[in-house]
Design brief:
Blueprint: E1 2-3, E2 13-14, H1 26-39, E3 46-50, H2 56-63, E4 68-73, H3 76-88, E5 95-99, H4 102-106, E6 114-119, H5 127-137, E7 141-152, E8 164-172, E9 175-182, H6 191-201
Parallel strand pairs: 3-4, 3-6, 4-5, 6-7
Antiparallel strand pairs: 1-2, 7-9, 8-9
EC number: 2.1.1.171
Keywords: Methyltransferase, Transferase
InterPro entries: DNA_methylase_N6_adenine_CS, RNA_MeTrfase_RsmD, SAM-dependent_MTases_sf
């Protein structure tokens, strides 16, 4: 069973899509949001949840005071579960569900400057693909934004783009949480830059 840990929706259960979705355990979510609350980056934040699955991470943020949440996933069962959970929690005015890949979403023109980004890719997402997503993400970040990447403990540290600087690492069983923030004095990689790089690789 997956449920919201705390906040206005605390204790409410969530629909979890069947298949390859790997929900973040309640223990890890509780530890993650305890850390984020301590940093003061959840209440009032604009949140992006990539590889959202059931939407548990983004909806936890909404329950704890985030002003807007965007849930992105490419799997149809996950998109359906996210929409069902948003409706069940009464968060239609706060949460938006986007059906598509993380990279595809980020290659669009930035429409929001996100304060908090939660990245929980499936284990089969390669380190190279994750690095590309993190590079594209930097064009969407607000100043002093916080990015959290959840990976298997056996996975290496993500390849951070110059615009992001690792600030912390926390391990919980088989899960590692990597924290990063906008690096001072670094220019983000723009969507145009990403398009030019893709063209050079063809």
């Amino acid at each position: 069973m997956t449920r919201i840990v705390s906040g206005v929706s605390g204790g409410r259960t969530l629909t979890v899509p069947k298949g390859a979705t790997r929900p973040t355990s309640e223990r890890v979510r509780e530890a993650l949001f305890s850390r984020l609350d301590h940093l003061g980056v959840v209440d009032g934040a604009r949140v992006l949840d990539l590889y959202a699955g059931s939407g548990a991470l983004g909806l936890e943020a909404a329950s704890r005071g985030a002003v807007s949440v965007t849930l992105v996933d490419s799997a149809k069962p996950a998109v359906a579960a996210c929409r069902s959970n948003v409706a069940a929690l009464g968060l239609r005015d706060t949460a938006v569900v986007v059906g598509g890949t993380a990279r595809g979403y980020l290659m669009g023109a930035p429409s929001t400057a996100y304060d908090l980004v939660l990245v929980d890719p499936p284990y089969d997402v390669t380190e190279t693909d994750l690095g590309d997503v993190l590079a594209a993400l930097t064009a969407w970040l607000a100043p002093d934004a916080v990015v959290v990447v959840e990976r298997s403990r056996r996975s290496p540290e993500p390849t951070w783009p110059p615009a992001l600087e690792r600030t912390d690492e926390r391990r919980y069983g088989d899960t590692t949480l990597w924290f990063a923030s906008t690096a001072p004095g670094e220019e983000p990689v723009t969507v145009t830059d990403m398009g030019e790089r893709a063209g050079e690789q063809r």
